Amino acid sequence: MRVGWDAGVSTDSTDTVTNAFEEHRPVLLGVAYRMLGRVADAEDVVQETWLRWAGGDRSEVREPRAYLVRVATRLALDRLRQIKARGETYVGPWLPEPYVTDFGDTAPDTAEQAVLADSVSLAVLVVLESLSPLERAVFVLREAFGHPYSDIAALLDRGEPAVRQLAARARRHVEERRPRHDVDPVRRRDLTERFLAAAAGGDLEGLMKLLAPDVRLVGDSGGKSRAPLRVLESADKVGRFLVGVTRKGFFDPSVRLLEINGGPAALVLTGDRPGPVFQLDIAEGRVRTVYIIRNPDKLRSLAAAE
Hints:
Strand content: 15-25%
Shape: elongated
Radius of gyration: 21 Å
Strand order of the largest sheet: 2-1-6-5-4-3
Distance between the termini: 43 Å
Structural class: alpha+beta
Number of helices: 11
Low-confidence stretches: 1-12, 103-108
Mean pLDDT: 84
């Protein structure tokens, strides 16, 4: 695939080089984060992409976005393969590092809106973690960013038929395991607020009215803080667990609502540090999954959200 800089544009201009990269940074971060599920790793990939862009030969570059996405995807793919090859054992359930998608008064542009689409949700990223690195790359590029199969094939140095097979297999895997949830932001936020009020008040009866009978609670601590090391299932177990941790001051001193991974979430503030993050999957007006992220390594990126 030939990618290149538009004719007539001076590649020696520092401002031009920087501006071209910054224009596409949100897309690059979106690709890398979906590939890796880790904010710090995604930012490292974007930084390495910048170094290659700024220090490389851009004389043949006609399409900066295509070139940059190619570099970022390959870097993320290499990093993902390294992670898989290490075969690291994670203590307890694994959840992606939360990614703040609430920009307050700063409205995202069109490219950034694409980055913050539904495929960045915790539920989808958990499913993507079970794909092979190539399947994940193809799924992200095709489903999240709409790249043609021919471009993906050239980007990954694979034949188009093979890429189509990878895409079909990844799509089928994701659809079979992706939880269905209510995407209405107003309804999700309303139920999230009611859930938090019931949990913070130790109101077991109120919680039971909000929880689906087969609700699941997934807690990610990485073995570095207190959280269930297995998924809790059933409204009774989840409700009693939440009431129990409330009595231990789990929700003190304050809770802040914010948007992470495209949906409402609750950030528990402990002193001057971000504490646990709660997010809910909601379907048909009931809570189907409660996600709790307590691994301190995954909460560092939320410091700026305070």
